[in-house]
Amino acid sequence: MEGTCAICGAYGYVEKHHTIYRSQAVYMRTIKVNLINLCKEHHTGNTGAHLCKKTDLKLKKGLQFKLEFMFFKSHYSKNEIRDVLDCSDFDAALICKRLCMHAEGYRKEDLIQRMLGGRFYV
Questions:
Q1: Does the model's pTM come out above 0.70?
Q2: Within 13 Å of residue 85, how many CA atoms lie on the same side as its CB?
Q3: What span, in angstroms and rounded, lies between the C-alpha atoms of 55 and 74?
């Protein structure tokens, strides 16, 4: 498909890339914020996310920053998570599946950590 590479800005053929791999968090496979366009070099080339740990880490840190910006409150309900992520009820339920529900809702930190495959990137 045609589009712009999220890393170099080149316009042309791009491939969809899951920032958090399906093997890290299968429930993130359809979440739009987790999908980015990359040119062939930045996807599977020597400096690409699949072969270069530095590039992969940069993209994961970028996603973490986006999620922290999107989720600005301290707690969220499942419906609010669905609305913020613009995803289905089913996808929101999968994300929340192993999270502890507090009286105020799901904690922002727990939610972001779950969406990042169980860890934070520093």
A1: yes
A2: 32
A3: 30
